[in-house]
Amino acid sequence: MAAVLRSVAVLCIAAHVACGSVSVPAADLIIHNARIYTVDPGNAIAEAIAITGDRIAAVGSNAEILARRGDATRVIDAQQAAIVPGLHDAHGHFIGLGESLQIVDLRGTSSYDEVIARVQQRVAVAAAGEWILGRGWDQNDWPETLSTGTPERRAFGWPTHDALSAVSPQNPVYLTRVDGHAGLANRRALEAAGITRATADPAGGRLLRSDAGDPTGVLIDRAEDLVTSRIPSTTATQIEAQALLADKTSRRLGLTMVHDAGTTGATVDVYKRLIDSGRLKTRLYVMLSGSLRELTPALDAGPLTEYGNGHLAVRAIKIQADGALGSRGAALLEPYEDEPKTRGLLITPPEEVYAITLAASRARFQTAIHAIGDRANRQVMDLFEQIQREVPGSRELRMRNEHAQILDSAEIPRFARLGVIASMQPAHATSDMPWVPARIGESRMTEGAYVWRKLRTAGARIAAGSDFPVEDPNPMLGFYAAITRQDASGHPSRGWMPAERLTREEALRAFTIDAAYAAHAETLLGSLEPGKLADLVMLSQDIMRVDPQAIPNTTIRMTIIGGETVYSR
């Protein structure tokens, strides 16, 4: 990034009047003595910023900006702290984050025994018959080899429900895997869902079974619906509480905008009420999900491009093409290396993906399609190309490929050619790297696994996120993963496939202006320029200059959204 200090032109508020012919009003807020990474077209670095109302009035030197001080101006000395534009998470699950803070947290469990122990603690305080929910387990992190079940299942490390059922005899329990594409049900939950050895695998899903053919409790992709459909529905009051928990977390982490990757109209109504009451501060770019029948009312009504002074937009549709790599549900062109009998799952039939994308494009909604495996990614890119031929102007809707994790090399140049945004999550690479070679082999891995550099070189735009609560929502962890391709301990020393790293400037863009572009918001958000909404974050360390290993420990000193300080340490 160019270390150039320059003043940025003053925002003139009076219409049809030249800047030189009016006096400059005093700013409401001035932050000075900072190192401000503007992410403007020139990558300028400034010393100070002036905010009037909810907009940026000027960015420049200390002297220039302090000249805008008035009697009522709030002035903050940043003491040389780094400031960046408000950070965006281009793919998160907002209500899922709030829910994850309420249920049993299984992230980081290092054994199945630890999972059981955490559930047992919740059982001790639960009423008989109450559903117990949890999320975050990952059998790839467990060193033990299960001693029961088929040789195939032992090799793949999947748990069975027996130990879980033993500690929860009176409570149905459902524990969602970290990626959300598999879950483990105890005996009571299986009984509540009516699942027996006679239950067939649903389309787009799979039940794991014992030697005798009985369900083990592990349900993959669409099979999860058999149990989750029996869990009592979340009320509007509960959704509101989850949204506020997620909002509090986002503000603390410097996330000023979240792309909510798949929710319902009922949840949008909750968001509107919270925004109207001034309680929800995080900006939300919502992707609606559901069947074509369920989406039709929203498509007929058309996109909501702005609500609550830039706090909400509902103009995208989310579709799932395949499952996840960790649960072997990602749809691959060739079989899995460590399970040659499968090539993964297409969760949504291709004809349904086409029908929803066509209807969404005709209604002027952006389409965002989850695609992880190379087979799913090929089908999605083929579909986007077809829709762009069939629906005039659909390219301008900025179609999005959510995840784009495993790509055949032929797909890489198509992103730029079709104007498709690669919505990727850097922390997925460093979480998955220990077992990706076993899943897909070295050849496929080096060709197209988490290939940020190849996509950038080919001209693609990358919008970065975390996929929380799959990964930790902290954007510092994603930024660190993007520039190092290392885990928190610095492993591997040179980074995993280090040629695919992003530069710090590229990573910052991916979490700011390029993410804003993916939400059709780049004219208002994503950079610190006069006239844009005043969303910015003050950091405890300068992530553009400190040793990379210090970045995960960087915290947020202040989060400002629309000129309002919504978090201060």
Outline of the structure:
The protein has 569 residues and is α/β, with parallel strands linked by helices.
Jot down its keywords.
569 residues, six-stranded mixed beta sheet, 25 strands, 2 domains, 19 helices, Diaminopimelate Epimerase, Chain A, domain 1, globular, alpha/beta, disordered N terminus, nine-stranded mixed beta sheet, TIM Barrel, single chain
- The computed structural class is alpha/beta
CATH class of the largest domain: Alpha Beta
Number of strands: 25
Total helical elements: 19
Tell me the name of the CATH homologous superfamily of the largest domain: Metal-dependent hydrolases
* Percentage of residues in helical conformation: 25-40%
Count of individual domains:
2
Describe the structure.
With 569 residues, this protein is of the alpha/beta class. The protein has 2 domains: 88-93 and 235-561, Metal-dependent hydrolases (TIM Barrel, Alpha-Beta Barrel); 132-228, Diaminopimelate Epimerase, Chain A, domain 1 (Roll). It is 30% helix and 22% strand. The chain is built from 19 helices and 25 strands. The strands form 4 sheets. Strands 8, 15, 16, 17, 18, 19, 20, 21 and 22 form a 9-stranded mixed sheet that branches. It has a 6-stranded mixed sheet with strand order 3-2-7-23-24-25, with no helix packed on it. Helix 9 links the parallel strand 15 and strand 16. The longest helix is centred in the middle third of the chain and has 17 residues, at 236-252. Residues 1-22 and 145-155 have low confidence and may be disordered.
Helices and strands, with pairings:
Blueprint: E1 29-32, E2 35-37, E3 45-46, E4 48-52, E5 55-60, H1 62-66, E6 74-77, E7 82-85, E8 87-92, H2 94-100, E9 104-105, H3 112-123, E10 132-137, H4 151-156, H5 162-167, E11 173-177, E12 182-185, H6 187-193, E13 205-209, E14 215-221, H7 225-228, H8 236-252, E15 255-263, H9 265-276, E16 283-288, H10 292-301, E17 304-307, E18 312-320, H11 350-362, E19 366-371, H12 374-390, E20 400-403, H13 412-418, E21 421-424, H14 426-432, H15 436-448, H16 452-457, E22 462-464, H17 475-484, H18 504-510, H19 513-518, E23 536-539, E24 556-561, E25 564-568
Parallel strand pairs: 1-6, 2-7, 8-15, 9-10, 10-11, 15-16, 16-18, 18-19, 19-20, 20-21, 21-22
Antiparallel strand pairs: 1-4, 2-3, 4-5, 7-23, 11-12, 12-14, 13-14, 17-18, 23-24, 24-25
